[in-house]
Each structure stands twice: as C-alpha cells, then as structure tokens.
Design goal:
The structure holds two protein chains of two kinds. By secondary structure, chain A is α+β, with helices and mostly antiparallel strands. Chain A has 13 helices and 15 strands. In chain A, a hairpin with a 5-residue loop joins strand 12 and strand 13. Chain A starts with 11 loop residues before the first strand and ends in a 5-residue tail after the last helix. Chain B is built from twelve helices and seven strands. In chain B, the strands form two sheets. In chain B, strands 2-1-3-5-7 form a five-stranded parallel sheet. A two-stranded antiparallel sheet of chain B has the order 4-6. Classes of the chains: A alpha+beta, B alpha/beta. Chain A: This is Sulfite reductase subunit A.
Chain lengths: 375, 260
C-alpha cells in the first residue's frame, strides 16, 4: 500500500537543472512525454518538451466547487495537488471509435475494428491517489479473459513518473482512504521534490533502465531528512477524512435516509463528479452513420450514472430523479465496489468535491448518511 | 429499394427567425449533394425552391410564431406534413424575440415604428409546439449540421432519432475543457442545459448561455443559489434563464423567480 513502510530506496539526486535529461531518456526510449502545464486556469497534463514547461512556482487553492491557481516564489514545479484530470483520460479515453461498418451494394455489412494507435506515453508528475485509481481501472478493464484491447494497448505503453505529493489541497483525503500521499511501487519512477531538485527512486525494471541514464548525484542526509519531514507534513495537513472500512452495509442500510433527498436538492445531476473521478468507468456506445447510410462508426464515450439515459432499459427509466441517481453513485462507489473489486472505489483525490459546480462534499454526505436516520 | 418508389419529400419552412438554422443544411458541404440525391427538397426559400403548400414527408420548421398569419401557416404545414421537426431555439423555445413576452411590447410598437397600425403581432412570441404537435425538436442557436444530418438519416432509416438531453457538462468533460465556473467563477448554464453543441462556449473559456434549452432533470434552484454566491444580482440571474430559450417551462419559471 502506498502509505506503508516501503523503504525509501532512493537512487540519487537529480538537480533541477538536469530535469531535461529525464525527458530526453524517455524520448529516446520511444515515449511521448506529457506532464503538468498551466492551461485555461488549471494544471493539465500536456506535451512536455523541457523542464521549463513545468508550472514552476504555481500553487493552487481548492475548496468545494472552487479551484484557483496562484503564483508563488517557490522554485518547485510540483507544489500543487491534483488538477481536474490525470491518468484516466489517457487510458479510458472520453470518446473513441471502436469499429466501422460498411454496407456494400447488396446491403451486406462489413465490420472493421479501429485499431488503437497512439505511441507509448510517459506521464510525469502523477500522484499516489491516481496510481491507486489506476490499479482499480486496471482491475476493471484488464479483467482476465475479458480485457479491453483499447485500454490494454495504451496501458502496455504507459510509463509513469510519480512525484510524491507535498501540497495536499483542502479537498484531499487520501490518507484516510490509505492511498497517499506517498506513491508505492505501482509506477516506474517515483520522485520527491526539493527546492533544488528531485530524489529519484526506480520502482520497475523499465524505471531502472531510465535511472541508469540520469546524471544522479548523492542524496545527502539533510535532503533525506527534509523529504521525511515534508512527507509527514503532507499527511498531517489533510483536513478531510472518509470513514475507514467497508461502508457497504452502512450505506445500504441507509437506503431511505432523508439525506438522499437533501443532497438531491443541491445536486445538479450533471455528471461532473463521475467524469473527474479517476475510478469511474461507465460509458455508453453510439453509432454515427453517414448521411447516405453506407457507413457508420461505432463510438464508446464516457457516460454517467447521473444521466437519464444511463438507467433507461426497454421503456423504463430506473432512476428518474436525482435522489436515486446520487444514491446509485455513492452506494456503488463506496459500497458494492467492495464486492466487485475488493475495495472502495474512492481513492481520496477530492476531485468530485472541487469540480462539483455546486460544491457537494462526498465526505460530508457520507458522515451525514452514517449518522442515525432522521437526525 | 424498388425503382418506382418516390424519393421522400422535404420542406424547410421559416417563421420569425434570423435564418441561421437553415444554414445547417446549406453548410453540409458534400452531404448537401447526397441529401438532394436522397430526398426531393420541394420548399426551401433560402435555397431557392418555392412550393410552400406542398405535401411532404418531413417539414423542418425554423422560427417562432408571432402573428395571426403565422398561426394559419403552421396549421397548414402541420396538415401537409407527415413529420414536423422544429429546428433551433426560436422554433423550440421562442428565441430572442420572445423576450418581448416579459415586457410591455405594445408600448415598444409605438416607440419604434412610425406607423404601428400596420403591425399585426400576437401578444407573445411562441414556440411552434404551442400551436401544433411537433414530432421532433432539434435544439440550439443555431442548430448544427451534425444534428440535422443525424435526424434526416434516422428518419430515412425509419428509426426514432436519438434524443440528446444530457447536460452540457457531460460533453464539456469529454472534451477535457476546464470548468469555467469552478476555475474562474464564471456563471455557466451548462449544468442545466441540453447537450448538442460540443460544449462550444466553455471550450473557449466562456460560460454556457443555455442556447440549447433545458436538459432533462434540470435543477435550476440549486444552480441559481450557486450563482447568487458568485455575486450575481437578481436581474443578472433572471437574464441567465430569460435568454434565447426563455419559453421553456423550467427556464421561464426559474427566471420569473428573480423578476421585480
């Protein structure tokens, strides 16, 4: 587990001015590099060609329904908590063509799969919560005997450079879910950022190959002590918590709790929470025919349990109102996920709190739901 | 297909509107040739074909109802059409001209026109469905070619066209746009507005202004409350709902809550 007692295992210190050697080594290994960049008022993962592209000095403030960047004097480039998206859209893409259909002159149909294409991708600056979410997405999309080939192709080509989180947002609660803030071994390289550069750890054989190409210096005892202090500070700085353990029975026993109706008065049923959630995997499939009806493309795209269409089956909408949709999301995410995947579907990243347009706080709702009904 | 089978007949009619939605046909590019090979476009004034009284399989109707003459025309179009499809905010939700429904329009007549006695306006500007049964509504200001093409294809295939009714947010997130309300505090109607535009405005860092009308299950009360917190004054709040799609029940009511 990410927060367990994994030995530091640092291989050395990469000075800030040598950061580009990491990018060059990854590129030489065939990877396209993406990492955090400031765009449209947020930290997004975009193409990275040099360390100078990184958001140096950028911090952010998050609160329910609120996200703002702020510029500081810190020389650091990873002094922020998670932005709106990280790994999910690069593996489980928001919209992609799965197959194409062609109708010949006699009306016969030919189906052609659309092969997944992108080249190997290195994502730099992922957080422990996103690695935990990735493990859950892997469970879902790479299920033995039933793996999704599109996801699998991209997953196979993925190289992950984790940077341990030292600046949790007010919306973060990964300590309480056991998923952060320190990355475990579900990545290839793990970095700890200091003012002057990065402590580097290899977490996979692919990572080891890259590490050997970096101009690493010795990591001093003072630096190690500083990293230890910052890791501890990142844990103790978290303000929110998710109750520990399997909440399934508690939540299903609260099926008629008045809180569901109360949260439905605020909830917009807009699907933002599920879209930013790094573990939500629901999707729908749509066919887009050409005007002459001769060809069609079959797409898979993100869907949400908050849409009407999601629970529509053969003339019936099972969840017509917001109360039933919010309840579906929460009881699945924190309840029946335990039966499906052996753990909760929440990794404590806090995105659903920040990016809810009206600031609904999952930790607050769970607390209320676990309190005795009717209080 | 049997060679004696006649091509389906299509008409494009216009009421009070800016003509912009009809461009969804004219902007089809190569598909416009495909369309004209598959159907007979018997009436489409903006493109030059004139036979307003023709009996058709599909009538596309743009614009809202504003005069007694409009009411007679739409009844005739309904009688002459197997399917009646409204296109755009004017036809589906009143459009910009329906803002007069919230004012003393008679007073404007004499202020604006030298000879107001020539006017024959109804008391309100109304969507087409206020007068006749509508089989399918395509929302937006303007509608786009993708919507029109999709509807035509579905009708030609004899299947019910897919109804797009999710919130704009769903598509905004698929497009990986940064939420303008959360990241900038910009009021955005996306969480109550019907999808179909591809989240065009938020992708250019502008709040959605609801030109596709209400989505299914819209929670206008909660969004209004959040807008209040962002500092919107009652008149600004009213304008969020009483814009291009004001003549829809949820938005009429939501805006009326902030009328003086």
């Amino acid at each position: 587990m990410a927060t367990g007692g994994a030995s530091p295992g640092w291989r050395g210190f990469l000075p800030r001015e040598a950061f580009d050697t990491l990018l060059r080594a990854l590129e030489a290994a065939g990877y396209e590099c993406i990492g955090p960049r400031v765009e449209d008022g947020a930290i997004l993962y975009r193409g990275l060609s040099a360390g100078s592209d990184l958001p140096q000095g950028v911090e952010e403030a998050q609160a329910p329904g609120h996200y703002r960047l702020q510029h500081t004097d810190t020389p650091r480039c990873f002094a922020w908590a998670v932005g709106p998206q990280a790994i999910k859209p690069h593996l489980f893409t928001p919209r992609e063509a799965l197959w194409e259909t062609e109708r010949d002159a006699d009306g016969r149909l030919t189906f052609r799969p659309v092969e997944p294409g992108p080249r190997p991708l290195a994502i730099i600056g992922v957080r422990a919560c996103d690695l935990a979410a990735l493990a859950l997405q892997d469970q879902h999309f790479l299920r033995a005997g039933n793996a999704d080939p599109y996801y699998a192709h991209r997953r196979e080509g993925l190289f992950l450079v984790a940077v341990n989180c030292t600046h949790p947002a007010a919306t973060c609660f990964c300590v309480s879910t056991g998923d952060g803030p320190q990355a475990g071994d579900d990545c290839d390289l793990a970095l700890d950022e200091l003012d002057e550069g990065y402590a580097v750890r290899a977490a996979s054989s692919k990572g080891e190959t890259i590490v050997q190409q970096l101009p690493l210096q010795a990591l001093t005892e003072a630096q190690q002590a500083q990293i230890g202090r910052e890791r501890e500070a990142a844990r103790s700085a978290q303000q929110r918590t998710m109750p520990a353990g399997n909440l399934r029975d508690h939540l299903f026993n609260a099926w008629e709790h008045p809180r569901w109706a109360q949260v439905a008065e605020r909830c917009l049923s807009c699907g933002n929470c599920t879209s930013v959630c790094p573990t939500c995997f629901c999707h729908q499939q749509v066919d887009v025919p050409t005007l002459d009806g001769g060809n069609a493309t079959h797409y898979r795209e993100w869907d949400s349990c908050f849409t009407q269409n999601h629970s529509y089956i053969h003339g019936i909408t099972l969840r017509p109102d917001t109360r039933s949709r919010y309840r579906q999301w929460l009881t699945h995410k924190l309840g029946s996920w335990h039966d499906q995947y052996g753990r909760s579907g929440c990794v404590g990243c806090g995105r659903c709190i920040t990016w809810c347009p009206v600031g609904i706080d999952i930790t607050e709702e769970v607390s209320a739901l676990l309190a005795e009904a009717g209080k | 297909m049997h060679e004696t089978t006649a091509k389906p007949k299509v008409a494009v009619h216009k009421f009070s509107s800016c003509d912009g939605c009809q461009l969804a046909f004219l902007d089809m590019g190569e598909d416009l040739l495909t369309l004209s090979a598959m159907v007979d476009i018997v009436h489409f004034a903006e493109a030059g074909m004139l036979d307003a009284d023709a009996t058709v399989d599909v009538a596309f109707v743009e614009g809202s109802l504003n005069t007694r003459h409009d009411l007679k025309r739409i009844q005739a179009i309904r009688r002459n059409s197997r399917f009646l499809v409204t296109i755009g905010a004017c036809a589906t939700a009143g459009g910009l001209q329906a803002l007069r429904n919230f004012t003393d329009a008679d007073a404007w007549h004499s202020a604006v026109y030298a000879t107001p006695e020539y006017l024959d306006s109804l008391a309100t500007a109304s969507p087409i469905k206020s007068a006749v049964h509508v089989d399918l509504e395509l929302w937006g200001c303007p509608v786009n070619t993708r919507q029109v093409t999709g509807a035509v294809r579905a009708l030609l295939s004899g299947v019910t066209p897919a109804v797009e009714q999710d919130k704009v947010c769903m598509e905004c997130k698929r497009q990986q746009a940064v939420c303008v309300m959360v990241a900038k505090g910009t009021p955005c109607m996306g969480p109550v507005t019907r999808t179909g535009c591809g989240a065009l405005c938020p992708r250019f860092e502008r709040g959605c202004y609801a030109c596709y009308g209400p989505a299914e299950n819209p929670n206008t009360d909660s969004l209004s409350h959040w807008f209040e917190g962002l500092g919107l004054l009652p008149e600004q709040l009213r304008e969020q709902y009483h814009g291009i799609t004001s003549q829809t029940e949820p938005f009429t009511a939501a805006g009326n809550r902030y009328r003086k």
